[in-house]
């Protein structure tokens, strides 16, 4: 039993390697950079490097076929399991690989329908699925016209990106137009794929995950991002599993209508209570919070492996879990950033001060001065601030690490991966770490 995993730098690939390896499935890990965490796992029997799927798709496909042929053994279960955007290149060329190895991934047509945030928004609007009102324009002029009358704050988003790359919060039409132009130039997007504009939705981030068997949902679970990094606009780095039937119904309705096959994850924003969860975007592949799914009992990597080999899987019974998972260092940085940027109390001081200044008459101001000092005292109250910090830090108690395992310790050396990125590119950025760097302009 063998599986080839691509984008092995991802923590989700590492958790998959451990999941498969514990069941006796040998892992071959591939990436375009050396020192990926998965390559250090005791369950990985070999690792290989491939050209960038974005910049050199033909070179990537050639190398992948070479590796598939190299590690094939007659009559043995053999599965290809991509983890990031290389899924799209493989799906587009699936006829090249299906005679050589098993896989369970959606078609390229299904992927493109949901990966493009513009076509996704139009699809949700047509099917009356809950989604924030979104401007999807086909030219810069159309974007500028619609941005003038939009509701702010809002987010300008590149239509196709991951890990919060190509997303910027804006507070008025001028900022929105400038951000859209910046993204269009930086990512070299054509007019027909011009960035979109979406209102900032109050609430928290929720991620609903799925495994589909030819349009039929077989497994679904939802986790809540307690922290993201960067704060408010980044990816989840501290998570908990939650019950979310409304989100799961919406995601299943969308993906089921497309005849989805394989895994996917749907992002929602939800204020809680009776408010309706709003669909934000779809990841047509494995998701960054896969460690939370597996730690909570939904073993998607093995389920996908069985779907690829057997052609079908039985539905997974839902269950509850109080497990929390976190990405080391980044989760703590997110919490520290929240602690030091807690401006709520200072906003209260500012508001109280302006109210005091607006009070007419010197005598009245003197009488209300005590209220102002009381507001200031509450805002700088060290005990209250410590309680807030302790509450945030308590979220890290008894968490499961995305990386560290006493039974498989060497992947912690994956911290060398950013160094490899720096050596190759002369810089390190979020875009480079998640393969979302702008495509170089054609000369």
Description:
Helix content is 41%, strand content 19%. By secondary structure, it is α/β, with parallel strands linked by helices. It folds into four domains: 2-103 and 409-433, Rossmann fold (3-Layer(aba) Sandwich), CATH 3.40.50; 133-199, Dna Ligase, domain 1 (2-Layer Sandwich), CATH 3.30.1490.20; 204-328, 2-Layer Sandwich (D-amino Acid Aminotransferase, Chain A, domain 1), CATH 3.30.470; 343-389, no CATH class. A seven-stranded mixed sheet has the order 12-11-8-9-10-13-14. Helix 1 (11-21) crosses helix 11 (300-310) and helix 7 packs antiparallel against helix 8 (173-186). It starts with a strand and ends in a 10-residue tail after the last helix. The model is unreliable at 431-435 and 438-443 (pLDDT under 50).
Helix content: 40-55%
Q: Residue ranges: pLDDT <50 for 5 or more in a row?
A: 431-435, 438-443
User: What is the alpha-carbon Rg in Å?
Assistant: 24 Å
CATH architecture classification name of the largest domain: 3-Layer(aba) Sandwich
Number of domains: 4
Biggest sheet strand line-up: 12-11-8-9-10-13-14
Can you count the beta strands?
14
CATH topology of the largest domain: Rossmann fold
Q: What portion of the residues fall into strands of 2 or more residues?
A: 15-25%
Global structural class: alpha/beta
Summarize the main sheet.
7 strands, mixed
Average pLDDT, rounded to a whole number, is 84
Q: Could you list some keywords that capture this structure?
A:
443 residues; Rossmann fold; Dna Ligase, domain 1; D-amino Acid Aminotransferase, Chain A, domain 1; 4 domains; seven-stranded mixed beta sheet; 14 strands
């Amino acid at each position: 039993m063998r599986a080839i995993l691509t984008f092995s730098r991802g923590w989700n690939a590492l958790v998959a390697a451990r999941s498969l390896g514990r069941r006796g499935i040998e892992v071959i890990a591939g990436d375009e950079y050396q020192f990926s965490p998965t390559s250090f796992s005791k369950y990985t029997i070999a690792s290989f490097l491939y050209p960038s799927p974005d910049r050199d798709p033909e070179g990537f496909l050639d190398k992948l076929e070479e590796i598939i042929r190299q590690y094939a053994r007659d009559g043995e279960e053999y599965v290809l399991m991509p983890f990031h955007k290389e899924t799209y290149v493989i799906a587009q060329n699936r006829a090249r690989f299906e005679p050589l190895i098993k896989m369970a991934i959606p078609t390229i047509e299904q992927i493109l329908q949901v990966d493009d945030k513009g076509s996704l928004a139009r699809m949700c609007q047509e099917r009356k699925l809950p989604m924030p009102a979104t401007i999807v324009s086909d030219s810069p002029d159309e974007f500028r016209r619609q941005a003038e009358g939009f509701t702010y704050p809002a987010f300008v988003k590149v239509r196709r990106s991951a890990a919060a790359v190509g997303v910027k919060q804006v507070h008025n039409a001028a900022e929105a137009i400038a951000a859209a132009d910046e993204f269009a130039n930086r990512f070299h997007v054509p007019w027909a794929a011009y960035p979109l504009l979406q209102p900032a939705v109050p609430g928290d981030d929720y991620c609903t995950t799925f495994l589909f068997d030819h349009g039929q949902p077989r497994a679904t679970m939802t986790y809540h991002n307690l922290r993201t990094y960067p704060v408010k606009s980044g990816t989840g780095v501290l998570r908990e599993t939650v019950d979310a039937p409304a989100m799961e119904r919406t995601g299943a309705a969308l993906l089921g209508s497309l005849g989805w096959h394989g895994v996917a994850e749907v992002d929602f924003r939800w204020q809680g209570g009776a408010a309706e969860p709003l669909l934000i975007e779809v990841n047509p592949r494995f998701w960054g919070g896969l460690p939370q799914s597996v730690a909570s009992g939904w073993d998607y990597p093995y389920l996908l492996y069985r779907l690829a080999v057997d052609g079908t899987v039985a539905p997974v019974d839902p269950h509850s879990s109080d497990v929390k998972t976190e990405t080391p260092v980044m989760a703590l940085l997110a919490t520290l950033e929240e602690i030091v940027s807690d401006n709520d109390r200072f906003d209260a001081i500012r508001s109280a001060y302006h109210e005091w200044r607006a009070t007419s008459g010197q005598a009245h101001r003197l009488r209300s001065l005590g209220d102002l000092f009381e507001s200031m005292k509450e805002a700088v109250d060290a005990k209250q601030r410590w309680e807030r910090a302790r509450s945030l830090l308590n979220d890290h108690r008894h968490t499961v690490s995305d990386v560290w395992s006493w039974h498989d310790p060497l992947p912690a050396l994956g911290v060398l991966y950013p160094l490899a990125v720096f050596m190759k590119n002369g810089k390190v950025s979020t875009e480079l770490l998640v393969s979302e760097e702008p495509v170089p302009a054609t000369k």
